[in-house]
Design a protein that fits this description.
Number of strands: 3
Structural class: alpha+beta
Distance between the termini: 37 Å
Radius of gyration: 14 Å
Number of helices: 1
Shape: flat
Order of helices and strands: EEEH
Strand content: 15-25%
């Protein structure tokens, strides 16, 4: 499965979250690190859902860029 991940650059770190998996987040010192950590977080999150007998949410989020004149 492929889940959309939102990566945000902060002042001193990067954060990532998965809109289709509420509560699935990661923080790292670099974009590369946060992407590795969010992948691990997704796998852990899905394992937890399966262990609880819950269904695994299908990915449905997408992203687009919108051009604006500022």
């Amino acid at each position: 499965m492929r889940y959309m991940v939102v990566v945000e650059q902060g002042t001193n770190s990067f954060g990532a979250y998965v809109p289709d998996l509420p509560g699935c987040v990661a923080v790292g010192e670099s974009k590369q690190e946060v992407l590795q950590l969010i992948q691990e977080a997704i796998e852990f999150h899905l394992e937890g859902l399966k262990d609880e007998g819950a269904s695994v949410p299908q990915p449905h989020s997408c992203s687009e860029f919108v051009e604006v004149h500022a």
